[in-house]
Amino acid sequence: MENNKISVGLDIGTTKIVAMIGRKNEYGKAEILGIGKSKSLGVHRGVVNNITQTIQSIQQAVQEAEAEAGLKIEEVTVGIAGQHIRSLQHSDYITRANSEVVIDDEDIDRLINQVHKLVMLPGEEIIHVLPQEYKIDGQAEIKEPIGMYGGRLEANFHVVVGQVSSIRNIGRCVKSSGLELEGITLEPLASANAVLSQEEKEAGVALIDIGGGTTDLAVFKDGIIRHTAVIPFGGNVVTEDIKEGCSIIEKQAELLKIKFGSAWPGENKDNEIVSIPGLRGREPKEITLKNLSKIIHARVVEIIEQVYVEIKNYGHEEQKKKLIAGIVLTGGGSQLKHLKQLVEYITGMDTRIGYPNEHLAGDSDDDIASPLFATAVGLVMDGLKRQERKRVEKEVEEMEHVIADHAEDAPVQEEEVIEPPKKERKSFLDKLTERVKDFLDNAE
Q1: Is residue 79 part of a domain?
Q2: Which of 20, 301, 316, 443 could bond to 376 as cystine, CB 3.0-4.6 Å?
Q3: Is there a contact between 330 and 208 (Cβ–Cβ < 8 Å)?
Q4: Number of domains in the chain
């Protein structure tokens, strides 16, 4: 099988690292060929804090996926999240030299590049610049300015910022694992691509991805991403609380949470008790499920309230910005019993659990369509899109050569104009990926 048709998503999480190999089937859906996961030991709250351990975990996940798919992996698309990600709104404008020429890609590139000159805090770098809407000569709410006339082009941007060192460390881990970095994507965006439908993004929706170390938020409205945030708490703090509150070891706390945990304390009767074997010759411990739920409830409420603050920061309470499709929960933490009801109760917004089957082939394994793998599926899709772009660019270049040769040979004729296919604008992430690659190549 051709290797250039497959794409590999690598989700480096706080609790687990997932490598997923996929390709596009004939219906344009993503078909998952292999999946590998390993315990993530060197990552804390989405940030790598032990390079050696992270490399081992990546290699383990990759080998598992390779064995299942029967393929060798060379390039991967990696997600970045972590507590260092923040976002801001910014508007900027350019004045065009000639307002009698229509606006083209280059004008937009110039505008976007100008945003990149924004002064950030030391050690920070702009990861994404996402145009929201444009204004031309004061006329507002323009979605697509290309092909229009105008002298002053301005836009509102959603700018996502992160720490350079954290991003480079991830690049370093990937490279030292013997892999090439094909692309870098913001994890909330990847998860959103995997679980949200186009209608939801149009109507307005908040995607909450509850991971082990962080909770990622992405808000969409009118089909455009409007707000992103990473909250440095996730499922692990819930486990920690259970461990402390019940004086048991982490492994037991995690199992308790998964098997018996609920976010809604009213659910359990007072007499429901779980007995936990004591450590080496000690008496077993008895824990009431009601207490367990109370501990979980307290922490989950805190996480959801923080996310809700971010949703309000975006402006959900204004009529024009209302998120009609409500909230979609995904990630491993979304599998907690009665979480949906709790989120609806706190925010008053419609809520559903998001499974990453939006673009998966119909015959995919149920395990893959679990919220646990939303980010990995999103990264695979992102890689596939990126390859599509590269193919188009290659075709464009070949066409341009053909046209150039054609122009030299042919006598001048007016009628015949060959239009090369349109090149897609390079997303800033592609540029970031190149920068990280260059840095790693020169740093050795």
Answers
A1: no
A2: 20
A3: yes
A4: 1
Q: Is residue 157 part of a domain?
A: no
Buried b (16+ CB within 10 A) or exposed e, 304-337: beebbebbeebebeeeeeebebbbbbbbbbbbbb
Nearest to 127, CA basis, from 94, 91, 75, 84: 84
pTM of the model: 0.89
* 342 neighbors 301 (Cβ within 8 angstroms): yes
- What are the b/e assignments for 176-198, b being 16+ CB within 10 Å? ebebebbbbbbbbbbbbbbbbee
d(CA 240, CA 249): 9
DSSP 349: S
Q: How far apart are CA 336 and CA 210, in angstroms?
A: 10
Single out the residue of 190, 187, 185, 127 nearest to residue 160, CA to CA. 127
Structural domain of residue 287, as residue ranges? 235-299
* Distance from chain centroid for Cα 336: 21
Instruction: Please tell me whether residue 184 adopts helix, strand or coil conformation.
Output: strand
Residue 328 lies in a domain: no
Amino acid letter at 137? Answer: D
- Asked if 170 contacts 290 with a C-beta cutoff of 8 angstroms, the reply is no
CA distances from 429 to 26, 126, 222, 297, 434 (A): 28, 10, 22, 38, 8
Q: Are 120 and 74 in contact (CB under 8 A)?
A: no
Q: CATH no. for residue 267?
A: 3.30.420.40
Structure tokens at 41: 């030991």
pLDDT tens for residues 276-333?
888 888 889 999 999 999 999 999 999 999 999 999 999 888 899 999 999 999 999 9
Output b/e per residue, 369-393; b: 16+ Cβ within 10 A: bbbbbbbbbbbbbbbbbbbeeeeee
Nearest alpha-carbon partner for 19 in 30, 32, 28? 32
- CA 82, 156, 107: angle at the middle one, nearest 5? 110
d(CA 192, CA 129): 17
Q: Which residues have a Cβ under 8 Å from the Cβ of 121 and sit 6 or more positions away?
A: none
Residue 293 lies in a domain: yes
Express each pLDDT in 182-196 by its tens digit.
Answer: 988 889 999 999 999
